[in-house]
Amino acid sequence: MAEGEKGLLVKCPCCGAAVRWQPAAEFRPFCSRRCRDQDLLAWATEAYRVVGEPNESEGSPDTT
Ligand SMILES: [Zn+2]
Hints:
Blueprint lengths: L7 E4 L6 E4 L11 H19 L13
Antiparallel strand pairs: 1-2
The site of zinc ion has 8 residues, from loops.
């Protein structure tokens, strides 16, 4: 499973920019901290909204 020195190219989930999957890419799979922050923000907003839903209040091992 050697990755080689080229590194894998992935797409930033936020803006779709190509990101090289390497240790130096601190915010991978995002292209930048801004994209990562945006995604975290969106995720947090979603999670916050879901908390209010009475449907799935129990049995969610994913939630901390
Ligand atoms: Zn991006």
